[in-house]
Amino acid sequence: MTGNARRAARLLVAGTVLALTACSGDVALSRDAAIPHAPPPSTAAAAPVPHGGAKRAPSVDVYAHDRPGLLSPVVAGFPSRVYVPNSESGTVSVIDPKTYRVIRTFRVGRRPQHVVPSWDLKTLWVNNNDGNTLTPIDPATGKLGRAIPVEDPYNLYFTPDGTTALVMAERLNRLDFRDPRTFALRASMEVPCRGINHADFTLDGSTFLASCEFSGHLVVVDLARREVAKVVGLPARHSMPQDVKLSPDGRTFYVADMAAGGVWLVGARGFKVRRFVRTGAGAHGLYVSRDSRNLYVSNRGAGSVSVVSFAKRRPVATWRIPGGGSPDMGGVSADGRRLWLAGRYDGVVYVFDTRDGRLLRKIPVGAGPHGLAVYPQPGRHSLGHTGVFR
């Protein structure tokens, strides 16, 4: 997002929130309303075994297939690489994570925003937002394919069953339903908010919770009906919701808020806002640790990463970039030992050691690095963005 767009976004928040709250039954929660501090959710596996030796019910872990070593046979032969879209340069930089060196830079369309793994794990799609195209990369060979015309592809997701691609047409305030391979348009849905950009799915895959950056709202999308089921207002004077991530137990959505400087906890059933957890200025990207215990929150304005415990629902550590920085979007290495984040306003990629939070490297890339993809990663299939795997 450019400087002018960022300034416009802040102005839009104040005016648009009032207009949208009037048409939403769930936006009545005011900024000053008390948000209950609900206790951490219990799981069936944590319950005591009843007298008589009855077996425990299995616990739920959304990310159980994302553990180190659980690479799909589809990606087993792919070289490990980090693909960095440089939005202002119109290029993608490819990094060898073993040497921390840029081994290739190639030109794509205008303003590439994210590099997105396909549902079947076989292709990486570069989202050329202003170029209105998707550029395919073969992760086995590193070769580019022919770009496909797609209108306003700011971000890209795939339904959990793999049958539909969901294009987040941010500037058009629209969600497009497309064929996941050809990207032929099937349907378009206008959303009653501005700047739809990031999302995640409920545990059963039936519902899509998406953030609307420029109006400070979330929209609940019924995927079967292809309609907005609910609009959720965030109770802050100014909100710019960004990344969305489902908790490992499937009960709570975590939503990064760049303006409020933290994450909102939203119930995955009734979509009620439960509480706010402060992390740092410009809270932006959300990434789950390989053991499903922690959530890494990139604080773009603070130049830091907050480690939020899912069990405690609060930060348990803060990793700071010496001299400051602008950590944005990225991903966790396949073994879970590295967190890779684009330095949006510094033309670099940051590499953190997840065991102690040390900044290991700053790697120069192009201008405006954004939604980088660490690939391959464990998981059976991709739900999109920079790598949300199940």
Automatic annotation (TrEMBL):
PROSITE patterns: PROKAR_LIPOPROTEIN (PS51257). It comes from the Bacteria. Residues 79-372 form the YNCE-like beta-propeller domain. Residues 1-19 form the signal peptide. Pfam families: YNCE (PF21783). Keywords: Signal. The keyword Signal applies. This is YncE family protein. Residues 39-58 are annotated as: Disordered.
